[in-house]
Structure to design on (558 residues):
């Protein structure tokens, strides 16, 4: 229902922008591969000597060769600076692995978000969503809202009282810096490169294999060189994405490295306008942003290095309180006004409520 | 959850170590591949430790002589660049060296360094088999000399493996396919 509403507005959703960026990037890379333009793949992209480098590949070659090559170091520093600035943005904006996972495992995609939608539909509240709130519904809403108010705030004043009536943030499962299995794999990548003297992880890197497959197709079609690479590379890729299932959250050393580099990034990240947020401002037990986050984060939290800036929370927020670039929005004063203007609120709220126990029980529902 | 994290992490590390060891053993000491690397990548151990298989050298090559190894060459070699002079010759334009992001391709001096050395196969060479072919007489480095019977041979000291002779050779190009793409003069590792 949130989607429906968003489609009506003229501004594209973050998801739409992201999809467009991904398509443009991949058409560009494919054209480069097919027509020998030479701007490279995600392992190294750029024109001539001015090119970015895969930071993981660069570190692997450093430990494998035990030498510091000046130009590699310069490229690595540049990429590290970018990573410090934008964090894990790569993961949701450019990396081909998440869309491919969705392609190979349709129906399993974006579990948390879908769950929300399903629950909302079941709830029956979604039917009323598009229509303005009836007096009865408004009353229910008011009751629900004030129900969650802390003591000391009268329910009559509930909607107009900004100081009280705010709920503390839910908090995400993966807020803050946590070392997990991906970091082990990152360590394993570097250790194996050091022991065997070549970047071992590059052999099975799913990002590399995507382009290896594309290159195999180019060689087969353009040069009459059909090889087993055409079958083996996608086969390894499918094993990684389909059989292992949880590549991004459990294994990907690239994501681990980027999250480690995500030190003090406060520029590009979801920022919540606390004056508009239903939870912070009006004490509604809304958990939409936390439930929709594929990384299991709460945008209200100060430190979320795992955030990929995918913008699902921005798109899903029923009161449009979240933005990625942090353009300061004018505070919306009258609370009830917001509720009436954004009828999605009712559905979202109930959805958020119904999904809460599930999310508490098993982190994999969110992290899958 | 902690135990699962450990299992995934340790499993991932174990797979990487096993993979590295296995492909290394299968590869022997690099004998499994006789692929020619782009200029500056002749120190095979160094090259392998630095190449991240990014494909840049292949796509920047204006002569199209940089090709890519396939899985048939082994998992360790797969996706590493290799030179294929059937598509073009190396002009030492250095674009691949400039483009290489990790420095796996070092500075290359065509006067003293060698990609490889050209070798004539008398069983295929038209000049040896039936006479009257001098298509390989294109060497800029005077590395190809012809004897009194007009048969070519290679002066190893002068040859730097640019592949111009291979590109020009017509033996086995228009003949019927005999299961082998090799022409009568091919560059091999020096």
């Amino acid at each position: 229902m949130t989607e429906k509403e968003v489609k009506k507005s003229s501004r594209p959703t973050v998801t739409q922008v992201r999809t467009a960026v991904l398509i443009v990037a991949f058409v560009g890379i494919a054209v480069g591969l097919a027509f020998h333009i030479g701007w490279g793949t995600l392992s190294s992209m750029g024109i001539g000597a001015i090119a970015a480098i895969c930071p993981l590949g660069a570190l692997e070659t450093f430990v494998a060769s035990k030498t510091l090559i000046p130009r590699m170091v310069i490229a690595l520093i540049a990429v590290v600076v970018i990573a410090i600035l934008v964090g894990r943005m790569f993961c949701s904006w450019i990396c081909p692995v998440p869309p491919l996972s969705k392609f190979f495992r349709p129906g399993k995609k974006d579990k948390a978000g879908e769950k929300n939608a399903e629950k909302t539909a079941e709830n029956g509240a979604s039917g009323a969503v598009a229509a303005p709130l009836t007096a009865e519904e408004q009353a229910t809403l008011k009751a629900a809202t004030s129900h969650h108010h802390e003591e000391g705030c009268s329910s009559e004043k509930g909607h107009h009282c900004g100081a009280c009536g705010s709920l503390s943030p839910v908090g995400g499962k993966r807020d803050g810096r946590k070392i997990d299995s991906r970091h082990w794999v990152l360590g394993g990548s570097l250790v194996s490169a050091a022991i065997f003297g070549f970047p071992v992880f590059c052999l099975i890197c799913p990002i590399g294999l995507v382009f290896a497959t594309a290159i195999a197709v180019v060689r087969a079609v353009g040069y009459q060189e059909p090889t087993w690479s055409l079958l083996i590379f996608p086969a390894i890729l499918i094993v990684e994405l389909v059989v292992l299932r949880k590549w991004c959250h459990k294994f990907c050393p690239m994501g681990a490295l980027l999250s480690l580099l995500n030190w003090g990034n406060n520029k590009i990240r979801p920022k919540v306008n606390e004056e508009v947020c239903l939870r912070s401002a009006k004490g509604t037990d809304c958990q939409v942003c936390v439930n929709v986050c594929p990384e299991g984060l709460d945008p209200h939290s100060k430190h979320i290095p795992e955030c990929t800036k995918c913008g699902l929370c921005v798109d899903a927020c029923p009161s449009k309180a979240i933005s990625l670039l942090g353009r300061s929005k004018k505070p919306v004063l009258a609370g009830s006004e917001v509720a009436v203007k954004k009828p999605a609120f009712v559905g979202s709220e109930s959805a958020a409520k119904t999904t809460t126990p599930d999310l508490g029980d098993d982190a994999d529902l969110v992290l899958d | 959850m902690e135990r699962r994290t450990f299992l995934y992490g340790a499993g991932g590390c174990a797979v990487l170590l096993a993979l590295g060891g296995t492909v290394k053993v299968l590869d022997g000491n690099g004998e499994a591949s006789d692929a020619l690397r782009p200029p500056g990548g002749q120190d095979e151990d160094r090259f392998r430790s630095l190449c991240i298989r990014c494909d840049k050298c292949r796509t920047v090559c204006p002569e199209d002589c940089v090709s890519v190894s396939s899985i048939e060459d082994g998992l360790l070699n797969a996706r590493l660049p290799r030179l294929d002079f059937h598509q073009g010759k190396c002009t030492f334009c250095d674009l691949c060296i400039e483009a290489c992001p990790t420095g796996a391709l070092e500075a290359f001096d065509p006067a003293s360094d060698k990609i490889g050395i050209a070798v004539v196969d008398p069983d295929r060479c038209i000049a040896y088999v039936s006479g009257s072919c001098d298509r390989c007489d294109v060497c800029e480095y005077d590395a190809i000399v012809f004897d009194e019977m007009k048969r070519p041979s290679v002066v190893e000291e002068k040859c730097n493996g640019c592949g111009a002779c291979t590109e020009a050779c017509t033996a086995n190009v228009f003949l019927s396919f005999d299961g082998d793409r090799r022409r009568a003069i091919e560059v091999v590792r020096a």
